[in-house]
C-alpha cells in the first residue's frame, strides 16, 4: 500500500442479502461500522428469494438452519416441516431481516457491476448498475455458491414459442409473487436431473399431460422423508436448541450427522445391508453423511452402498430398461451432490412420464415448437431448465473485479481459485469472499457456516479498526500453502473422480483442460480451528498495515 488514504463512503459494502449477507451486514453495523448492502433482488432471502420453483425445499433439517448472530430468533420460529419448503424459508428470512432490522442498510434492485481496488487511496471503488459510484474500505461478497444461473446455449433457444424458464428465475407476477404455473394438460420438458430437477419432476408429473425428462447424467438419489412437525415436537426441539446447534457445529458439514467410525470394508455383508437399510429409511442426509467413514475414500466401500442404492432403484422403477438408465455409472455414490427425493423414482412408473436419454442422443437445437434431439423432435408447451449454476466463482466472475495494479480476479483465478482460508486472494486487499471458493462454508449447511464465517470476518475487521490498521492482504506463502492443501485434500477423495458442480473445468486455448475443486473438503471444525489459529496469532498469514 502506498499513497494517501482517503476516507471512503462506507467502511464496508456487503454484496448480497441472502442468509450470509444479512448476517454480515447486521454484525458489522452492531460493531458501529458504516455498512451498505447491495442486493439485486427486490428484497432479502437470496437463494430462497430466487428459487421459487414448485418443490423447492431445504435439504437439511429445518431447525439446524439458523442465523447465529441472532440465535435468539431461532427458538422463536415454529417450523412446520422437518425440511421446510421455499415459501416458509423465505418467510423465515424475512422474519430474520425484521428482527435484525437490516433492510435499512440495503439498496435493493441494484447490482454491483464493478469493484476496482484503488492502490493509492486504499479503497474499493464500487460501480452500481444505477450508475452510482461508491467507495468502501472493505468489500465483502456474500453472493452465494449457487446464484449465477447456468443456461445451455442451444441453437434456437430464443425461438421457442412456449413458456421457458430456469428454475432459479421462476416467473413472478407484478407484485413479485411466484406464479403458479399450471401444468394441467400441458406437455412439459425438464432439462436436468440434479437436486433441482429431482425436486420438480415428481410434482410436474402429477398434472402434466406428458412430462419429458431430458437426462444427461443420472444421479444417486435418496429419500428425503419429509414430515410435518407437530407442535409438541417443535416444543421439544426448542428446548434442545443449544445442544442441536453445538452438535451441528461439531460435524464436518454442519448437517446433524457424524460419520460412522467403521470402514465399510471391515463390516460383514449382512451387517452392511442392515445398516444401509436403516440409513435409507431414516429422513435426511444420514445415508450420505453418516455412512462408513471410508465412503468417499475407498472405491470398494463406496461400491457396497452404490450397489445397495442401485438395488433400490430397480425395486422402485417398474420398467427395467428405465431403471437401468436412472442408475449412475459415471461417478461413485456421494461424489456428486446426492439429490434428496420424494417419489422421484415412482414418477417414472406413470404412463405420462418419459425419460429421454440426451447423453446417447444429445439435444441438437430448439425450434418454436420444442426440442430436437439426435433421436427425434419433442413438441412442448413448457420447458424448465433445471440446468444448475456457474457455481461458487460464477457470481464473482459476473462482476468486473480488479485488485492491485488493475489485475482482474477472473484472470487471477483462470486456472482455479487461489486464496488464503478461502477468504481473501492475494492482490485483492480488504476483499473478503464469504462462502467463497476454498473456504469451509460452500460445502456446508450455509445457514450455519456462512453465519460463523461472518462472525470471524467481523472480528478481523474490528481487530484492525481497534489498532488503526486499514489494509489486509493474504501473504504469498500463506495463500500458496492453503491452496495446495485444498487441492491435495480434494484429490485424496473419490470426489476427484466426478464432475459435480463444485468442480470447475476450464478449457485452455490449446484445448487442454484443467479441473479444479471450488470447495474445501476438510470439514467445518478443522476449517474453523485453522481460522482461530490465524486470529489468535494476530492474523498471521495476512499482511496488515
Ligand atoms: P446441478 O446439480 O448442477 O444439476 C444440473 C443438471 O442439469 C445436471 O443434471 C446436468 O447434467 C444438467 N445440465 C446442465 N447443463 C446441461 C445441458 N447443457 N444440457 C443438458 N443437461 C444439462 O444443479 P441443480 O440446480 O440441480 O442443483 C444445484 C444445487 O442447488 C444443489 O446441489 C442444491 O444444493 C441446490 P450433468 O450432470 O452436467 O450431465
Automatic annotation (TrEMBL):
<dbReference type="Pfam" id="PF00743">
    <property type="entry name" value="FMO-like"/>
</dbReference>
<keyword id="KW-0274">FAD</keyword>
<dbReference type="InterPro" id="IPR020946">
    <property type="entry name" value="Flavin_mOase-like"/>
</dbReference>
<keyword id="KW-0521">NADP</keyword>
<keyword id="KW-0560">Oxidoreductase</keyword>
<comment type="similarity">
    <text>Belongs to the FAD-binding monooxygenase family.</text>
</comment>
<dbReference type="GO" id="GO:0004499">
    <property type="term" value="F:N,N-dimethylaniline monooxygenase activity"/>
</dbReference>
<keyword id="KW-0285">Flavoprotein</keyword>
<dbReference type="InterPro" id="IPR050775">
    <property type="entry name" value="FAD-binding_Monooxygenases"/>
</dbReference>
<dbReference type="GO" id="GO:0050660">
    <property type="term" value="F:flavin adenine dinucleotide binding"/>
</dbReference>
<keyword id="KW-0503">Monooxygenase</keyword>
<protein>
    <submittedName>
        <fullName>Cyclohexanone monooxygenase</fullName>
    </submittedName>
</protein>
<dbReference type="GO" id="GO:0050661">
    <property type="term" value="F:NADP binding"/>
</dbReference>
<dbReference type="InterPro" id="IPR036188">
    <property type="entry name" value="FAD/NAD-bd_sf"/>
</dbReference>
Amino acid at each position: 500500500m502506498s499513497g494517501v488514504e482517503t476516507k471512503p463512503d462506507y467502511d464496508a459494502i456487503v454484496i448480497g442479502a441472502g442468509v450470509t449477507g444479512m448476517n454480515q451486514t447486521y454484525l458489522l453495523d452492531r460493531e458501529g461500522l458504516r455498512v451498505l448492502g447491495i442486493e439485486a433482488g427486490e428484497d432479502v432471502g437470496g437463494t430462497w428469494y430466487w428459487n421459487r420453483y414448485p418443490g423447492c425445499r431445504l435439504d437439511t433439517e429445518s431447525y439446524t438452519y439458523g442465523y447465529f448472530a441472532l440465535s435468539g430468533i431461532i427458538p422463536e420460529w415454529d417450523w412446520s416441516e422437518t425440511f421446510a419448503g421455499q415459501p416458509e424459508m423465505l418467510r423465515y428470512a424475512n422474519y430474520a431481516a425484521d428482527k435484525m432490522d437490516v433492510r435499512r442498510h440495503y439498496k435493493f434492485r441494484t447490482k454491483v457491476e464493478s469493484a476496482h481496488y484503488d492502490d493509492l487511496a486504499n479503497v474499493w471503488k464500487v460501480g452500481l448498475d444505477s450508475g452510482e459510484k461508491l467507495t468502501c474500505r472493505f468489500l465483502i461478497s456474500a453472493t452465494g455458491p449457487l446464484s449465477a444461473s447456468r443456461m445451455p446455449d442451444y441453437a434456437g433457444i430464443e425461438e421457442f414459442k412456449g413458456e421457458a424458464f430456469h428454475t432459479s428465475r421462476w416467473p413472478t407476477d407484478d407484485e413479485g409473487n411466484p406464479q403458479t404455473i399450471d401444468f394441467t394438460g400441458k406437455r412439459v420438458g425438464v432439462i436436468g436431473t440434479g437436486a433441482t430437477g429431482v425436486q420438480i419432476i415428481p410434482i410436474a408429473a402429477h398434472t402434466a399431460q406428458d412430462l419429458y425428462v431430458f437426462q444427461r447424467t443420472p444421479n444417486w438419489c435418496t429419500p428425503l422423508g419429509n414430515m410435518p412437525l407437530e407442535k409438541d415436537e417443535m416444543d421439544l426441539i426448542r428446548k434442545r436448541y443449544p445442544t442441536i446447534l453445538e452438535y451441528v457445529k461439531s460435524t464436518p458439514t454442519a448437517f446433524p450427522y457424524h460419520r460412522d467410525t467403521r470402514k465399510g470394508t471391515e463390516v460383514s455383508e449382512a451387517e452392511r445391508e442392515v445398516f444401509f437399510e436403516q440409513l435409507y429409511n431414516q429422513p435426511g442426509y444420514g445415508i450420505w453423511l453418516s455412512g462408513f467413514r471410508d465412503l468417499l475414500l475407498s472405491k470398494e466401500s463406496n461400491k457396497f452402498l452404490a450397489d445397495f442404492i442401485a438395488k433400490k432403484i430397480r425395486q422402485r422403477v417398474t420398467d427395467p430398461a428405465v431403471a437401468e438408465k436412472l442408475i449412475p455409472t459415471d461417478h461413485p455414490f456421494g461424489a456428486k451432490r446426492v439429490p434428496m427425493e420424494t417419489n422421484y423414482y415412482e414418477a417414472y412408473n406413470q404412463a405420462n412420464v418419459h425419460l429421454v436419454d440426451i447423453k446417447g442422443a444429445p439435444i441438437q437445437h430448439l425450434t418454436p415448437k420444442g426440442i430436437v434431439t439426435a433421436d427425434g423432435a419433442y413438441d412442448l408447451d413448457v420447458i424448465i431448465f433445471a440446468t444448475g449454476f456457474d457455481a461458487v466463482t460464477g457470481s464473482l466472475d459476473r462482476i468486473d473485479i480488479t485488485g492491485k495494479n488493475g489485475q482482474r480476479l477472473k484472470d487471477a483465478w483462470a486456472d482455479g481459485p487461489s486464496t488464503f482460508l478461502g477468504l481473501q486472494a492475494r492482490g485483492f486487499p480488504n476483499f473478503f469472499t464469504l462462502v467463497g471458493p476454498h473456504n469451509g462454508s460452500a460445502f456446508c449447511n450455509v445457514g450455519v457456516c456462512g453465519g460463523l464465517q461472518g462472525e470471524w470476518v467481523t472480528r478481523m475487521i474490528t481487530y484492525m479498526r481497534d489498532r488503526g490498521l486499514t489494509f489486509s492482504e493474504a501473504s504469498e506463502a500463506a495463500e500458496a500453502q492453503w491452496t495446495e492443501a485444498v487441492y491435495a485434500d480434494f484429490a485424496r477423495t473419490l470426489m476427484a473422480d466426478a464432475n459435480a458442480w463444485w468442480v470447475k473445468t476450464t478449457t485452455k486455448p490449446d484445448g487442454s483442460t484443467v479441473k479444479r475443486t471450488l470447495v474445501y473438503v476438510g470439514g467445518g471444525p478443522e476449517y474453523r480451528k485453522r481460522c482461530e489459529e490465524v486470529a489468535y496469532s494476530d492474523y498471521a498469514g495476512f499482511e496488515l498495515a
